[in-house]
Amino acid sequence: MVSAVEEAATRCVTLPPSPVLKASLKRSLPPPMSLVMTDGLPDEISLDNLKAVLPTSKNGESGATNGNVKYGDSHGAVKSNKNFVLGRDMHGSSFKITEPDHDDEVTGEKDAYMASVLARYRKSLTEKSKYHLGYPYNLDFDYGALSQLQHFSINNLGDPFIESNYGVHSRQFEVGVLDWFARLWELEKDEYWGYITNCGTEGNLHGILVGREVLPDGILYASRDSHYSVFKAARMYRMEAVKVDTLLSGEIDCVDLERKLTEGKDKPAILNVNIGTTVKGAVDDLDLILKVLERVGYTEDRFYIHVDGALFGLMMPFVKKGTWDLRYIRKKSLSGEVHEAPKVTFKKPIGSVSVSGHKFIGCPMPCGVQFTRMKHINSLSRNVEYLASRDATIMGSRNGHAPIFLWYTLNRKGYRGFQKDVQRCLRNAHYLKERLREAKIGVMLNELSSTVVFERPLDEAFILKWQLACQGKIAHAVVMPSVTVEKLDNFVEELIEVRKRSFPEGNVKIPCIVEEVGVQNCACSLHRGAGTIPLPKGEKRVSACVQNGNSINRASH
Amino acid sequence: MVSAVEEAATRCVTLPPSPVLKASLKRSLPPPMSLVMTDGLPDEISLDNLKAVLPTSKNGESGATNGNVKYGDSHGAVKSNKNFVLGRDMHGSSFKITEPDHDDEVTGEKDAYMASVLARYRKSLTEKSKYHLGYPYNLDFDYGALSQLQHFSINNLGDPFIESNYGVHSRQFEVGVLDWFARLWELEKDEYWGYITNCGTEGNLHGILVGREVLPDGILYASRDSHYSVFKAARMYRMEAVKVDTLLSGEIDCVDLERKLTEGKDKPAILNVNIGTTVKGAVDDLDLILKVLERVGYTEDRFYIHVDGALFGLMMPFVKKGTWDLRYIRKKSLSGEVHEAPKVTFKKPIGSVSVSGHKFIGCPMPCGVQFTRMKHINSLSRNVEYLASRDATIMGSRNGHAPIFLWYTLNRKGYRGFQKDVQRCLRNAHYLKERLREAKIGVMLNELSSTVVFERPLDEAFILKWQLACQGKIAHAVVMPSVTVEKLDNFVEELIEVRKRSFPEGNVKIPCIVEEVGVQNCACSLHRGAGTIPLPKGEKRVSACVQNGNSINRASH
Lengths: 557, 557
Prior knowledge:
- Two copies of one chain form a homodimer.
- By secondary structure, chain A is of the alpha/beta class.
- The first copy, chain A, has helices at 5-8, 47-53, 90-93, 108-131, 171-185, 200-214, 228-236, 254-263, 286-296, 325-329, 358-362, 374-383, 401-438, 460-465, 485-501, 514-517, and strands spanning 192-197, 219-223, 241-244, 269-274, 303-308, 330-332, 338-340, 352-356, 368-373, 443-445, 451-455, 469-471, 474-478.
- Chain A is built from 16 helices and 13 strands.
C-alpha cells in the first residue's frame, strides 16, 4: 500500500516548507496588465476574442531542466519512478485533546480555548479556499438551507433499495439522485443499481470488484495515467493487472492496448476507462476501445468496462451543443473522419460508471456516485453466497448527508446550470492557458478538459500557497466553477514574479517538459512552444493536443 | 456481495409495512406502572435497588414458536440460513429531481417545493430519532459550534501524516484525535499509524488487509457472530476464511477456535476479535485467544489480530473502576479463577483496532478510527511496490469534518465524561432487561454490554416504529447515551400492549428462543426464564450469560 520505505517514513522527515510560509510571500505585485476583470468572464466573450487579446508569445528563454526541485506527485497518479513528497511530522502541529478540568462542567477556559482554535481554523480555511487552484474541487457552494439537518445522525445503512429498520436515513434523496443519473446515463430505473459513495475511490473499488465478480479470472487493463486507486484495487483483490501506455495527452494508447489485449486473450478483460485522468484531464476514447475489443475478438460476455469519470464524467455531458460542439465534442481522426467524443451511456456495453460528487458539484465532504447494471448485482447474488449479507455496497454504513447535498444542487442547478458552469470552466481554462503561454510558460490543455498542465514552479512556497498538485516536472491547475478570471490573473502575475525571483537577475531558464506535454507545448529554448525550432533530422514533429484518432504513439525526444 | 437472487430482488418486492404505519399505532397506553421517571436514572440508584423495585417474574405463558413471522436480519450479522428482509421499491417514495423552470433563476415555486421537502424531512427525522432504539448510535450530540465549517470542502486526502498540497484539510484535528487513541491503546506516537475512516466497516477492511499483507498466505479466523464486513473482506481479498462457532452469549468459542487453528496450523492465522458483537454485544476473550494461539504453537510472527471494537471498543475502557469493576470487569472462569476482562492494548500482540465514531461518541455521519502499528505500514512499504501510491488508507479522499466532530466531543467529554455515559448506558440497559423480564419477555444481556437481546416482536409496525434490528427470532435494543429511562418505559409499555394485541383475547404465546439466548433467558412455557420448569431427563441446564472461562459449548435443546 506504500511504495517505498523512505516514502512511508516521510511522516517523520523534515522537508517542511510549511504552509505558513505562504504568509511570507509578499504579494506586492503590479495589477493585471491589459485585462482587468473583477469576476468571471462575461458569457459573450468568445475564445477567439480572447486569443486576440492574448497573443501566444513565441520567444522562449534559454532551455534548462530544473534539476534542483524536489518533485512530488501529491496527486497520487501512477508514475513508474518514485517521487518524494512534502511530508512532515503532524504530531507537532496537531490540536491536542485535553481532559476537561472538572467532573461535570466544561470550564470557561476550555470553551474559550476550543472557540479560539475553531476561529483560527476557520480563518485559515477561508484563506486557503481563496488561493486553492490545484485540486478539482468546486468550493463554490451554499448549503445553508441544509444546516438544520446537521444535528441528525443520518446513515444510509447498506443497500439504497433495501430499507433497513434504522429510520434516520436519506434513501428518498439518494434514490432521487440515482434516478437523475439513470436519465443522464440512459438506463431504465429497473435496470440499474447504484449508491452514493464516500468518494471516487470507493466508486473505482466497487466497479472493479463488480467486474472481478462477473469475470473472476479477468485481467485488469488500465492506462498508466489512471488514478492510483485502480491499481490499488487490483492489489487488494488479487487480480492480474496490466498497465497500458498513454499518449502525451494522457489518453490511453489504443495501439498498446490492442497489443496487450491480444497477449492476454485467453482470459477475459476488465478495463478501466478514464473520463478525465487525474493529472492531465485526458479522456480515453471509449468508442475506440470498444472497436479494439471487437477487433481482437472479445465478445461482450468476455469483457467488463468500468468508467472512472471522477471529475469530467459530470462535466462532459454538459458541454453545450452549438458554439462549442465543433471545438469540443467532435474529434477529427487522422483519416480525417469527424466523430463524436466518446459519450458515456449504458446503451454501450459498459458495466459501471463512477463520478465524484465533491468535485464539479461541490460538497463539504468527499462523496460520489457509483452506478452499475442491476443484472451484474443480480448475477453476483446467483454466483456468490455472500454470507447472509444483502449489502452490495463496500462501506455498509454510509453518510446520509451526502445524498441531500447532491439532491439540493442537482435540483437548484439542473442541466442548464451545469451547462453554464461547464462553459465557464472551459472558457476560463483556455484563458489561463493563453495567459501562461503569453508568459512563455510551457502549458498544455486537453480538449474537453479544464485541467491546465504547466511547468512545475520552482518556488515551493508558491506551490503550497496555490495548492498545486504536482507530478514530476509538471503541475496543474483545475479550473472549477469557483475559479474566477480574477483569481487566475492573480495567479499568473504571481507566478511570473516568483519565476523571475528564482533566477539570478531575473534571467529565467525555462525547463524542458517536452516529454510531459509535447513539442508544441514545451516552452524551453529547444522547443519554444508550437515548435519553431527545427527538430533533429528524421524526427517527426508531433503535437500532443491535436493527436486524434488515437493512433499516434508517444512523441520521441 | 448479495446472498441470494430473491434477496437482491427485494428492491422491487412489495413487502412494505411502510414506516408511516407507525403513525397509525395508537399510543393510548397507561402510564408506566410503579416507576415513573422523567429523564435518565439518578446516578445514586444501584442495580440492586432496581432489582428490588422490579422483581423478575417467573410465571410464563404457554409456549409457542412464532412461525408466522417474516424474519429479517437487517443488522446484517452472519447467519447461515437465508432470511428475508423488509424491502420496498424506493423509486416511488424518492424525492425527484426536476429541472429549474428558468434559465437563470431558481423560481420561487421551486424554492418553496424544496423548503417544504426539507421541512417535512426534518420533522420525520425528529420523530424517528425520538423512537430509535435498535441501532448503536448515540443521537445525543450538539455540534452547533461547528456549523461555521459546513461551507468548506474539507478533505484529508490520503495519509494523515503525509501532508498533501490541498490546504483545506483537518489533519491537525485528525492527528490530535489519533494521539488521544494512542494513549488509550498504549502505543507511542512514533509507533502507531492510523486514520479517521468513513465507518467501522472501513476499519475492518483495512485491518484485515494489513493482516493479509503482513501474512500473505494467512487464513482468516472469525466467529460466526462477527460483523458481515469481516467475511466480505475475506471474499474481496481472496483469502481463505474459517468461521468459528460462538457460545450462546455470542462470544467466540475458544474450544472450536483451538480445533480449527490446529487444523490450519500449516499456514499463518489472521484473527478477527470482536469487542462487542453486532447482535448480542458479546466480547471475545482476547487473553484466552492469545493463550490458545500459544498452546497450538503459533509464534507472534505467525499470527495477526485485528480487533473489531466498533461499538464497545470505545465503551469498555470507561467502565468505572470501583462499584462496577467486580461486576463488569472481572470474570470468573469455570475453575473459579477471577481474571480481568480482556483489555484492548497494544502491549499485547495485536495488530490493529478499529472503532466507530458515530456510535458511542455520536456524529452526524458515520465515521471511525483505524489504528495499527507503524511497523506494519513500514513492512508493507518494504514488501510491496504499491504503484507510486504512498497512501495507505483505503478511501484516499476522506471526510475532513469527521475528525473535527470527534476532536470536539473528546475535548468536551474527556475520559470522565465517557465514564459517566458508559455507566448510565449499562445501568439503563439493566433496567430495560429487568423490565422485560418482569413482563415475561425472553431477554438476555451480556456482561460488559448495553445491547439488550429479546424476543422479536410479532408486530412489524412496532419494529419499524422503534427501529429494532432483528435477526431470526430475536431483536435487540442498544442502550446509548441518548436513550433515557422514560424512553425505555414507553417502549416496554407499548411492547406489552402490542404483544397482547397480537393474540386472540390477549392470550399471549411466548415464543421459545432458547437456542438464541439459553434456558435461563428464554421465557417460553418450557423454560420460563431462569429455568423453573424441569428439563427432559439427562439434559443439563446451561446458562448463557453466566458461562465464563469460555469452555462451555452451545446449550443443546
